[in-house]
Structure formats: structure tokens, C-alpha cells
């Protein structure tokens, strides 16, 4: 089966060229044989008919009424001898016989054959049936020893002698003609017929080959394009499966981080405002406020402590809420979002931030805008807390759906391996960006830290 696999591996054009070529050669051989044989028979028959017409016009007037005569009289035989022995007809004919229907030779220029009877051949039967029979071959009949001894093909013609008023064949003239040049004519006819068949077959095959090769190139191009598309779709499917797994992991980590974030908020409320409120509640139960004999100055001092604790609790609660509640950014541009975060950071930390914004892209989804807000907010906070707020910079670019936001500082940097998986800062930012299909990158060292977030157009649209 190896040959079958090798055959199937070939292109359609190659298969057609091989199979069609073999079939065309076989068809050309069969058609060439048929056509050349048909032409050869036609040439021989036409040549024989012309000779028979000439001989019949010369010989027929010399013959007696063959319907009533069973033997050829001496006068007729002598007239035939004189006619066949001289002139153009004598030079043209090699031998001559007059047959009776029972196979008896009534006359022959070979006198020893006159009166002999031979088996009636198929050719003789056809001639007595009224058909002209012409052959170009080496003589093979029993009565043709002399002609066979010549060793070359001769034109053998059987011409029926017809009764004038009934059209019935009463005798058959058999004669052999040297037919000089007939062999060359037949060879030329064969060569021309084979040439015509070969030219027609080659033209037909070449035209079909051109059409098949054009179709094959189209099919191969479409097959290659389809293969490329399948490869591309397979790669996209693998990428989608990877993104799906990535999204699942991000969702799981986001859920865990959300729980950690909630615990952090609870801890902030417990350690901050709750402590101040508890302190104020305890002071409300103090003897200074309960005892009616307490001096007004002492009571006022105690109330001042309580008011101070409650004010600190309210301040911390507002700070916590301010970090949780986002401003209205759904309809804001990237320029407005980044500017708002930077101004809030500068007001809070009293440190400068260099800002570069290049925006000419389409409207972004709200989830991406929120991610940009949180990214810049958290990255600036880290730059201030861990980098000392040295040369802080924010660069944001949005062009045709491609979004790139970069926050950098020139602090001392940090070791990324020391960031805990449960950290709410950088880990939370990475999970938020991953869940939206973007990419997150951190570069840190002695020269400072750069945090980058990128969304590609397709990812943003998703």
C-alpha cells in the first residue's frame, strides 16, 4: 500500500498528468490502429476499384455469354491472350484468371491452371455475391504459386462479371497487379494518419492539462489557505483555552483576595474607629460624668476627650470610605481619570507627580476604566510608601484600542519575591488586570520601580 500512499500524496495535477498521459497514449494507439487500418482499406479498395473498372472495360467485351457458356472457347481464349500479353494492360497485370462459381478456372495466363478446380475461397464467394474484393498482400492461395514466388506484396483483385440485364455475377475475374508505388502510398497514409491522431490527442491532452493545472493550482492555494486558517484557529483555540484557565485562576485568586480585603477592612475598622469609639464609650461611664458633684472643669475636660475620640473615629471611617468608593468615572476619559488620581495623590502626600497622557483611541469599557483608576492609585501609593515618592511619574497611552499605563519612581526598589501572595496591593492589581485579559509587569531595582499595565484592542473589546 506504500505506492497508494505515495500516489495520494501527489497533487491532483500530477495524478492527472500521469494517469491521463497513459490513457491518452493507449487511446492514441487504439484510434491510430483503427484509423490507419480504415485508411489502408479505403486506399486499397479505391485503387482496386479503379484497376477493376479499367480491366473490366477491356476484358468484358472479349468474353462470351457466361450465362450459357460453361467453357471458354478458343477464340475468346486467344483474344484474351493477345490482350493480356501486350500493351499497357499486359505490363500492368502479373497474372489473370477467370473463375466459374464452382471454383473451376476457365481461363488463366498460366495455361497449366486452365480447367482445374479449387476450393472456393471466402474472397471468391464474396465476388460471386456481387462485391469487389481488393487485397494488397503476398499471395497465399493454393493456385497462386507463381505470384507467391515473387516474394513481394501484390494488388489482388476479384471483380465479378455481371449479367447486363439481371446484374447477376456469372463469373469472376481475378488478377494480380504489381501496383508500383502503392506500398509507399500506404506508408505515407499510415504516417499521416498516425501523425494526425497523435497531434489531435496531444492537443486535447495539453488543453485538458492546462485546465487541470490551473484548477489544481487554485485547489492547492485554497487548501494551503484552509490549512493556514485551521492552524490559526487551532492556535487561537489553544490560546483561548489558556486564557480560560488563566481567567479561572484569576477568578479564584480574586475571590481569595476579596476575602482578604474584607478581613483587612474589618481589621482597619476594629483597630481604628472601633478603638476610638470603645474608648469614648468607656469614658462616658467614668465617675467624672456620673458623679453629680464633679467640678464643671473636670466634666468639660472629660467631654473634650470623648469628642476628640469620636472625631478621630469619624475621620478614620471617612478615610476608609474614601478609599472604597470610586468617583463617577464611567463617562470619564483616560485623561480625566488619571488626572483625578494624580491630583488626589499629590494633595494627600504633598509630592509632585510627572504626568504624560496621549489619548486618541475609542471609548473604553467601564471595567477597564475602573482598572486604570485602581492601578494608578495603588501604584502611586506604593511609590510613595516604598520609594519615598522620588520622581514619581505616570504615562498613559490610548491609541486605537491599545492601552498602556506606566507608573514609575526612582526609589530604592524592592525584592518582588518578598511580595506575599495574600498581599492586597500589587497581587490584587495583577489579578484585576489578568481577569480583564490584560498584561501586568513589574521592573524594580536600585534605580527605581516601574509598574506597567497593557490592554490590546481585542482584549479590550472582550
Explain what this protein looks like in three dimensions:
The strands form two sheets. Strands 2-1-5-4-3 form a five-stranded antiparallel sheet, sandwiched between helices. Strands 6-7-8-10-9 form a five-stranded mixed sheet. Helix 8 runs antiparallel to helix 10 (about 295-325). It contains 14 helices and ten strands. The two termini are about 50 Å apart. It is an alpha+beta fold and about 450 residues long. It is rod-shaped.
User: Beta fraction of the residues?
Assistant: 15-25%
Gyration radius (Cα, Å) is 59 Å
Could you report the average pLDDT, rounded to the nearest whole number? 77
User: In terms of structural class, how would the helical and strand content be classed?
Assistant: alpha+beta
Task: Write a concise keyword list for the protein shown above.
462 residues, five-stranded antiparallel sheet, alpha+beta, five-stranded mixed sheet, 10 strands
SSE map:
Elements: H1 2-9, H2 12-59, H3 74-85, H4 87-92, E1 93-99, E2 105-108, H5 122-128, E3 133-137, H6 145-149, E4 154-162, E5 169-177, H7 182-271, H8 273-284, H9 287-290, H10 296-324, H11 334-349, E6 353-359, H12 366-387, E7 392-399, E8 402-409, H13 426-435, E9 439-445, E10 448-455, H14 457-461
Parallel strand pairs: 6-7
Antiparallel strand pairs: 1-2, 1-5, 3-4, 4-5, 7-8, 8-10, 9-10
